[in-house]
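for the record, two folds in this file. i put them one after another cuz i was lazy. first one right below, seq on top, C-alpha cells after. the second one comes after a little note so u can tell where it starts
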Amino acid sequence: MLSIPLNAVPSPKLSVQAPRSVVIIRPHHFTPNEATAADNAFQTCPLTGTRETIADAAHREATGVAAALEHAGITVHLFEDEGTETPDSVFPNNWFSTHTGGHVALYPMFSPSRRRERRHDVIEMLKQRYRVQDIIDYSGLEQDSVYLEGTGAMVLDHIERVAYAARSNRTNEVALERFCTHFNFEPVVFDAADAAGRPIYHTNVLMCIGTDFCLIGLDTLREPRRRAEIAGRLAETGRTVIDLSHEQIGDFAGNAIELHGRQGRILALSARAARALRPDQIAALERSVSILPLDVPTIEMAGGSVRCMLAGIHLSPRG
C-alpha cells in the first residue's frame, strides 16, 4: 500500500457528497469478464496465474479495502459472492444507488452476465438499517435494450444536483432523463474517448466529484466547446478542477470516491491511481481530503477500480 498518511482534513463538516457508509461485495470466484471486454478498453487479460490464484488475490484485495475503510471510520456492509456466474459482482455501484430522502434506484445493465448481480439481501439490509422510503426499479428497461449502469454511467454532483454522463453502450439518454426527473438532477451529457479514440464505457473512470474538488480528464471530452462548458461549470461551483491526462485516466486516477471517515473526509482510490497523481495534484486534494490508497491490481484487470467497488450509502440510519 502506498504510504500517503491519513492526515486530519481542514474541514470535518459532513457533506452530502461524501457518504459515511458503503456496500462492498467480496468475490470468491472473480475473473475479468469476457462478456464485457468488447466495449471496456480498461480491461486487461491476466498475464500469469490460474483462475484460482486470480480469484484468491481479488478476495484478498476486497478484504483489504473493507478493512482499510473500517480503520478510517467508514461503515462497511460486506457481502459475500460465492457464485461463479457473476464475475463483475465486485462492482455493485452499477446496479443500485441510494439518495437522500430515503430513495433507492435499481438499474438496467448492458451485459446479460451482469444482470444477475442484483441482490435482494442487499436491498433488505438497506431497509433494515436505513430509512428507505421507496425503490425505483429501472431494470425492466433491459427488455427494450435501454441501459443506465448506475454511478458508473453517471457521476453525480449531490450538492448542485447535476448528473454528468458520457454517452456509451451503458448510458442511454432516455434512461438518464427518467432518472433525473425522478431524483431531481439536471443531466449533462457529453462524448468522451480515450487516447486511441475509443469511447469511454463509464463516466466514473474519467471523473470524480468531491465536495471541494473535481478530478476530470478534460482531454477525453471530444468536443472543445462542450469541454470548456463543463470545466467552467465545475469551476463555478467553487471546486478546484484537477485535470487528469489520458495516462492518468488509464491508471484509474479518475475512479475515486470521497467518503467521510472518523477524522473527516477522505479520498479512496487505488494505489496505482495515487502513484499516477503529480505532487501538485496531491497537494490540491489534500487541502480538503486525506488520500487513502488501496491495493487492488487484480480487480483492476476487470476494467474498474476503487470507485466501482464502493456503493455509497446516502441514506439516514435508523435509530
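(here's the note) second protein begins now
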Amino acid sequence: MNIAVMTDSNSGITQAQAKDLGVTVIPMPFTINHEAYEEDINLTQDQFYQLIRDENTEILTSQPALGDLSKAWQKALEDHDAVIYIPMSSGLSGSCQSATMLASDDEFEGKVFVLDTQRISVTLRQNVYDALELIKQGKTAQEIADILVSRKMDATIYITVPTLTYLKRGGRITPAAATLGSLLKIKPILTIQGEKLDKFEQARTMKKARKIMIEAVKKDIAERHWDDYDLFVAYTEDKEQADDYIKEIEAAFNHPVNWVDPLSLSVACHIGPNSLALAAAKKYID
C-alpha cells in the first residue's frame, strides 16, 4: 500500500522536518489576544515566549478545524491508498476524538486510520518514525494501526517546571496552591502514563527534580522489562539547560539520548519557559 503518515505539531516535528521525512504535520491553533495563530506557521517559538511572559497575554489553545483536517486527508488520498493519522493523546485534547469521528465519514472510512497511541512530544515523534519504518516493511495501514496502538503503554514521560505561575494561569492549579507552592519554592514533577498528565512528586530545587526524573525513568524501564529503549529530552525555551541535562542523563544511564526537542507550544503554554522533560520508550525498530 501507498500510505501517507500525518501527525500534529504536538509531536515536535517542525514543518521543515516534516518535508524531509515525507510526512504531514497539522499545526495546532492558538488564539493570542484574540488573534489566530498556528504553531510553526505564523507563530515561532521565540515569538511565543516573548508573548507568554506578559501576564496580561491571553492564550487559548484549540484543536485543528475539522474542515482543515478533511482537506489534508483529501489531498493525501489523491495519491495514496490510505492515511495513518497519529494525533496527540486523547487524554490531553479532544482533537483525537474529533478526528476519529471525522474518519468514520463515508469519504474516509477504511482509508483514514486515526491512532490514539496516548503519546505526545518526543514519544509521539517515535510513533511517526516507527510508522514510516513499518511502511517500508510492507505492512498494511490496518496492521500499522494495530501495531502502534498495541504499544501505547510502552512509553513514559516526566516533566518538571521551575514555577507554578503558568499552571495557575492555565487553571491547572488553584491560585492558593500556586501561592503556597511559590513560597515553599516547590518544583512539581508531572508524569504522563497513558492518557493523563498527573502529579508525580515534588522537589525544592530543579537539580533535585532532575535526579528524581532520572530515577523514575530507570524504575519504569526496569519494571516494564524493556530489553532496549530510546531516551528523549524535551524542553521549553532553554536549550542550554537541556544540553546540560543530557550529559547528566547519559552518565546515569550509560545510554545515549536519542534526540532532544522543544516541547510543543500547546504544552508550553501551560508549563511556561525553562521546563524540562525526560522520556523513554521501548525500542522496537532500529
